Amino acid sequence: MAQPVLGTPWYKPLGIRKQECSSAQTLASLDAYWRCANYISAGQIYLFSNPLMKGGLSPRDIKHRLMGHWGTIPGLNFLYAHINRFIRDHGQNTVVLMGPGHGGPAGNAEAFIDGSLSEVYPDIPQNEQGLERLCRAYSFPLGFPSNHGPHTPGSIHEGGELGYVLSHAFGAVLDNPSLLAIPIIGDGECETGPLAASWQTNKFINPQTDGLVLPIVHLNGYKISNPSILARVSLQERDDYFKGMGYRPYTFVAGFDEEDALSIHKRFVALFEEIFAELCSIKEHAKQGFHERPSYPVLIFKTPKGWTCPTYIDGQKFEDSWRSHQVPFAAADETLTHFDDFCAWMASYRPQEIFEKDGTLSKQVTRILPQGDLRIGSNPCADAGRVRCALTLPSLDLYKLAPDTSQRGALCASPTYVLGLYTAKLLQNNPQMFRVFGPDEIASNRFQSIYRATHKQWYVDIDKDLENDGELSQTGSVIEQLSEHQCEGLLEGYVLTGRHGIWVSYEAFAQITASMISQHIKWLEALRREVSWRKPISSLNILLTSHVWRQEHNGFTHQDPGIVDTLLNKSCNNEHVIHIYYPCDANLLLAVAQQAYTATDCVNVIFAGKQQIPVWLTLDEARLELARGVLEWTWASHTDAHGNFDLVLATCGDVPTIETLAAADILRRQGVHFKFVNVLNLCALQRHEENDTALTDEEFTELFSADKPVLFAFHAYVGTIYRLIWGRPHSSNFYVHGYQDLGSTTTFFDMLHMNQMDRFALAAHALQILNAQRALVHSCAKPLWKTARQEILAYREQLYRFTLEHGYDDPAATSYPSVAKD
Amino acid sequence: MAQPVLGTPWYKPLGIRKQECSSAQTLASLDAYWRCANYISAGQIYLFSNPLMKGGLSPRDIKHRLMGHWGTIPGLNFLYAHINRFIRDHGQNTVVLMGPGHGGPAGNAEAFIDGSLSEVYPDIPQNEQGLERLCRAYSFPLGFPSNHGPHTPGSIHEGGELGYVLSHAFGAVLDNPSLLAIPIIGDGECETGPLAASWQTNKFINPQTDGLVLPIVHLNGYKISNPSILARVSLQERDDYFKGMGYRPYTFVAGFDEEDALSIHKRFVALFEEIFAELCSIKEHAKQGFHERPSYPVLIFKTPKGWTCPTYIDGQKFEDSWRSHQVPFAAADETLTHFDDFCAWMASYRPQEIFEKDGTLSKQVTRILPQGDLRIGSNPCADAGRVRCALTLPSLDLYKLAPDTSQRGALCASPTYVLGLYTAKLLQNNPQMFRVFGPDEIASNRFQSIYRATHKQWYVDIDKDLENDGELSQTGSVIEQLSEHQCEGLLEGYVLTGRHGIWVSYEAFAQITASMISQHIKWLEALRREVSWRKPISSLNILLTSHVWRQEHNGFTHQDPGIVDTLLNKSCNNEHVIHIYYPCDANLLLAVAQQAYTATDCVNVIFAGKQQIPVWLTLDEARLELARGVLEWTWASHTDAHGNFDLVLATCGDVPTIETLAAADILRRQGVHFKFVNVLNLCALQRHEENDTALTDEEFTELFSADKPVLFAFHAYVGTIYRLIWGRPHSSNFYVHGYQDLGSTTTFFDMLHMNQMDRFALAAHALQILNAQRALVHSCAKPLWKTARQEILAYREQLYRFTLEHGYDDPAATSYPSVAKD
Predict the structure, then answer these.
(1) Which chain A residues are closer than 8 Å to B466 by Cβ?
(2) Based on the structure, what is the number of domains in chain B?
(3) Which of A322, A472, A519 minimises the CB distance to B557?
(4) Of A476, A536, A744, nearest to B226 (Cα)?
(5) Interval B569-586: pLDDT, tens
(6) Within-domain flag for A389
(7) Taking CB atoms and an 8 Å limit, are B553 and A456 in contact across chains?
(8) Which of B197, B461, B570 is facing A741, going by the closest CB pair?
(9) What CATH number is attached to the domain comprising B275?
(10) Counting beta carbons within 10 angstroms of the beta carbon of residue A564, is it exposed (0 to 12), middle (13 to 18) or buried (19 or more)?
């Protein structure tokens, strides 16, 4: 990977003496920055006009609707001030991640002050006019949302749904040795599961080859309307907690007494210098070849919630209370009732000292800022398209399989295993810029051939004799933490900072991250709709395997193909943010994966099997199918001499395809003529108004016919197909088979049998449909088909009895079909 | 609540001297039990016949398919042995929760040995025949699944998807002061988010009024194919971690050297006695009125993975390796290759000592067992229907609202606030048997009137001056931990042990628990299908509010109504395990909630608003609508003198209903005749083969007509309605409006506007549809409607411009309609 320009690493104070870091001028500047950021933040929440309070505020300057969350803001602004000062003095490549998403105004204020906001939004210049526009645009239609998200330069994390900021930070520093990531974590967020798990990710970080994470816990004591747990346990317990997870806690307390601001700033500068020195020494030790896992500093930043807002309003506590979580004077009319108090509060930030007369920022405020790309709002890693390098792709031709097209079905391969081989080569070609994550399932998902090219990164003890630890190493491109949340979060952090990757999971347990994936999609949707200045980032790729149909051994808890519905709900606005693939052989998976690996600003979810299954298509055919998303498999179709057919057999997913091809074999022997269609890209079935790359109605009719029944065997729940085909021409011709949420620990055939997905159920259903149609048209059914259907069902029951009796399947029930060239 | 019979609390050793607990006889029995359970566990995995190895095994006795997970089993069996001994000696009311779900054979072995299995499955008697049947039934079609789940007596937790065992345990002990819950937690599970968060739930437990949880971390070192993090950090770090979370860690190590079994047992008995003494003293202190939060013991149980299986197979490490995770001799043919080694392994458990000749268990094995309901497999709390008491319901009449039916829309109320009042009374009427959980959102969701009856339970520091802590108390029926996982998990544990409750969440963030709710539904599905002996448990109730349409202030991250699709995928088999309600006023919510609170063996998910909105229906009307799930609102319909109408206006959800009623007002003025239908229970739209309580096709046609267009305004994504109506008669007449995944921080009208859900878009669309139809039939559109539509759209744009300009809405855009009696 091209190192970002800022790759200067981890100096000890850059020729700066400690006292210079906290010179009187610097302390005054820190305080001016803090007041300025607090003022601009409050301004965004309250002010519609006159943002400099010129001639004093008038009630007309107050917004009609007050939206925002004050509670977390002053603490964030304090930290931003000091991080700016720190970057200025040390030139350290630093990204900041704001966990308390509702602190949006603080993030906007930061980017306004450091100038990065005006660079991407030229209509918001750094003067009075710009300030007024910023204040007005905040939480305003077509303006800045209330969360710190993709709209604001410098942000790579939106914290609306809490829990993911620390995993994003760890993802950001992987393979980025010069980067310091500072996630600011609310004490509320600390109570969530994903956040609680992510502390342990430090066990994977290699301080030599990765960057470092400095978590700051913003312990302001209260959530929306409750105290936070971490704020109420003893200092000893809290310290033990962090020590126990491999951190060295530093607690900084301020704002609870009369200590003057400059002295608080002075103390904080000293502490931050101490912590940075420790980070430098961790880096230095790692560079010198020490391989002990360090204890990483964590900063507990304890302040009152709502710090610096009115202490009491109408006799109720606000500063240092959950009551300051949102807007201290809650509504415009309430603000007006307390107009004088409100004005006094605003004036307490001394706008006259922080702005020049023309509304530009006083030198006092900006003096502590770093310059250029070192600015928080301009760090290249936070607009990762700027630093992203394209992958060097291995040729698929070296990995493709060559099925005998005169007898398809003979050659078998595990799709995920084959993709693992390809991905191994990809890893080799693209060191330090492609990562694989898995929740302890890489091998179980048969993706383990990637270990030919890399190791599992692991920075805890490794057994010397390697009897169990052969694939572990302190460096490697794979991380296996038993947490789907961490896999998703680390990969998000990695691609959001300009790199590439994939995570691999059991299909059922991807749903654990359903809401997390949704949030990443929302980020991408916002990019496409509203944020034109960000450069494209790599796709987020998820390979879901160990899927529902082959979890017969693990049982019902492991059988759930439903994540697809969560995905389909997103991106129905022609934005192509989601791609959903069901490759049913190894070549299709290769073609899909190559496309997915190179895509940008989207999420690719690929459902593929790990079992040895037939390779149906050549790579060229696979590419052809990928191009349109759907393909008639003419070699599997069986039409009469004139190209006529009785029904369409359609499939989506590997097991449904195998069973339908086997059913086709039965039907062919019954003289049924059919067309065979395979769906690879599920989104190709979406309606055109949702997805303009989907099949047109004409193409849809061409593929599925205007008048023939369509027997559609689908990998997941039938409802998914119903929602997709509703409104399509002739969709009432469809008969959909899918997973019916029936399962247990049982045999493969029993799984198929209970969900009506076995070849016999499919063939018998086809005959039943055809006969019913025939009865309508010709007033009689075809006796041959009636008898055949009964025989098929009888045979099916015989095979089922075998299964029940023996506990395994008669091979005739599940053998792979093969299709000879006509 | 009726206390379970076992409510005898927390004695110090019951007249038993320590040495008696570990008498030679007891130690020998512990070891015999352990060998017996290991033998029966391995038997389930490997043996098809001859489970006593009579005359030695023959290759024919090996199962053809070997399924299961050995790695976790011997440790579980060891713990079961000792917990049995402990219960026998102390008579302590104890439930055990098996986190490593794959340890199913251990759970079955336990219930077989303690006799509870044979009591519920009389065809599996405690003899050779029963043993053979058990072995055969394991992981066999129609038999016992491989997870420890609802099929096995004594289980209240299925661990297939990891992360929830500790929250289930905490949920189980709430308001159950005599209960000791022992969750056994795999070191893999410790890496998941939900588990990592659940340790902190001890901050809510009141040791006087609740039971206690003794977590045992089963530290066997390896996951599927990786070491676990907790096993590789230092003892000091691990201890600090647990201390930091308020626990006192005890580490027990065994199995890594040549120490003989009896000495291991002796050490463990001593440790367990010490830990129990500590638990008793915690209980005793709490009883005496000490209110300091205790440090709860946690047991770290460190053993080799696969303990007692062959150390090496073909030169590869198995015992103490991830390789023993599944089946040590992986396939039947492999087992046969190593047949002698396999037989020697089985023989190492000395079956001749643990079974009598007739296959009954030797006294040596059973001597350590408790009797009757004290048995792990028979604890009443683990078959909670046995102890569950019905709720005493307050009358809804005291809480219902009485809208003026001659002018509907005038009376407004917040539905969740009203339900809060009702629930407060319910809490008062049913102390210690109904609980409310929330992720720090009870007040935000306007459910705070429950605090009239109870407090938020909080067992950390409470501020004495109560400026911030007025609603907190060491006892209370509400828990607010900022983790949706914990809310769901605690409620599951609470209802699974016989009590009742609800959790309340922002709609969008319920999706965080999508997979968790799915797993609970799977438990219920298995109950309905396969487990007839369990008595019904209370419904799991989820109130989702702060919903998509009114999250305009919190922004796009907070806007996601998609959880409903995950729910609809479940229970499509006529099992009525899921109920999905969209009550659109306070009376409907009251009626729904009362039905939900009293339902059993199901999950009720209720989507309801928190804003002040009109009360459309009287309580009687609400009950009528609830009975069928759908109702024509005749007072809102506007038909001609003959009852004819031009179109059907259908709604589901509060905001769509308000907007459609407002659209109806516009349409009425244009001379359009319509019928108005409201859908309360979304499942009423399911196809009959999925849900036999849904509308029949005849009822569906009666409601929505055979030939009129249906304008359907739906709360969530349109795809959900498409999947439901596909295949219904005349479903192509439907035109569905719903959330289109468009949003931001903006005004309410802008939210409606961008998603085409505002009254003007609805009315204009209706006119467009009617005119298109008319053009088809009469070859001309109705000019009046064409003009009216243009005027409506022009007015809409005018209102929209107001919003963009002012940042708030013209009241005309969003005012509540009112409907006068004709």
Answers:
(1) none
(2) 3
(3) A519
(4) A476
(5) 997 889 999 999 999 999
(6) no
(7) no
(8) B570
(9) 3.40.50.970
(10) buried
